[in-house]
Amino acid sequence: MEKIAHMALVHVTSNIFLLLSSIYIQGAGGAIGINYGTVADNLPPPAEVAHFLLQSTIINRVRLFDANPEIIKAFAHTGIAITVTIPNNQIPQLTKLSFAEQWVKASIVPYVPATNIVRILVGNEVIATANKLLITNLVPAMQTLHTALVGESLDRRIKISTPHSLGILSNSSPPSTGRFRQGYDTHVLKPLLSFLRATNSPFLINPYPFFGCSADTLDYALFRPNPGVFDENTKLTYNNMLDGQLDAVYSALNHLDFSDLEIIIAETGWPSQGDAGQFGVDAESAAEYNRKLMEHVTSGIGTPLMPKRTFETYIFALFNEDLKPGPTCERNFGLFQPDMTPVYNIGILRPTAKAKFPSNPTPEIGPANPIPEPKGKRWCLPRSGAEEDELQKNIDYVCGLGLDCGPIKEGGSCFLPNTVRAHAAYAMNAYYQATGRHDFDCDFKETGAITTTDPSYGKCKYY
What we know:
alpha/beta; 35% helix; globular
C-alpha cells in the first residue's frame, strides 16, 4: 500500500503544471511572475484578467505598474501575490510623511488582506531618468513610505524597493568588473542598499539579454549552445548572457559590501514581433527565451558567482500592448493577446486551459484535439534510428518546460547510462505521461514511439 501511495505521489509530482504550481504557491525562491502592463486600448477588464490568471495559468505573482484600485480589487481573494508601483512623478511628494500616509490609507489599506499585496515599488528605473529631482528624493521617499507602513502595521507584510535598469552599472564585462556608476554608487545606491538591508527587502533589476545581444551573440542570449564567455579574473565561463548580467550586478553589490541582498529579476522578456531586419525577433525565439529562462532561474543551479541560488523572476509581459511607443517590438512582448489566447506556449497554461487555447506557434507536438486513450499502460521512447541531435532537442524542450529532469542529472536515479538516447527516453516519457498519454504527446517530430514494455530498470522508474 505504501509503495502504491509513493508511486501515485511521484506520478502527480511529475506533472509539469502541478510541479510549477507548487513552486509558486509555496512562495519559494525562483518563483515566476508576470508584468501586467496596461498601455493598450483593447485589454479585457481586470476582473477577467485576474480570473484567467487564477483559473487558467500557474502564475501567482503579478507586478503592476501603478496602484490602479480596480486592478488591485480584482485580485482580492485570489491569493496571487501583488506588487504595486508608485509612478516616478510622485516620488518628490512621497518624501512628505502626510502624503505617504494618505497614499497608504487610500491605495493599500482598503485592499489588504483580501488582496495579497506583498511589495510596493517606488518608481521604475529612476536613476536611468537622469532626473536629479527624482534621484535625490528616491531614498527619502522609500524611507517615508516605510514609516507610513509601520504606522499601519503593514511593514512586515509589505516590503519596499525600486527596480533598476542595467544602466546603473558603469561596467559589466567581464562580470567580475561590474561596478555601479561613479557618483551614484556612494550618494544614492549605498543609502538605498542600506535601507533594503535594514528592512529585509530585495534589490530589483531589469536585465534584458534581448537588448544586449547582436547577431553574433544571439545563441549566447537565448541559452543555446555557444562557445561561452571566459572571465579572466575569476576563471569562470559564462554560457548565457543573463548569468553575465546578474553576476555583474552581484559584483557591483559585493564591491559595496552588500552581496547578502536578495536579487529579484523585476523584468525580462523577448518580443515575438519586430521591424524588418531585426534578428531573433519571432514567436519561436521569444518562446525559447522565456521557457529556458523559467527553467534556469528556478533550477537552483544559480550563476557562476551565485551558485545554487534561485531568482524570483517577472516575465515581461502579460499582454501585447498596442499603445506603447517606440519600435514594433515594444508592443509585442506579451505572452498573451488581448483576447487571452497565447501568442506562444511556454508551459504556464493549466491542462484544462490548453484545450480552450490550442493556438501554439512554437514547435507542435501533435493535434490540439484530445484523442481517447487506449487501455493498458504505455510508455514513450525514442524511435529506432532517431538522430542524437534531435533527441537532445527533445531533452532541452521537455526540461525547458519545467518538468522534473532531476533523475537524468548527474547523481539521479536515471543518469546512467549517460547517453543522449537514454536521457531522451526518460524526458520524452515524462512529457508523455504528464500531458495526457495521447499518441501525439509522443510524436516529437516523428522521433518518438509508443511501447507497452516497461522501460524501467534498477532504481530508474518510468511512470
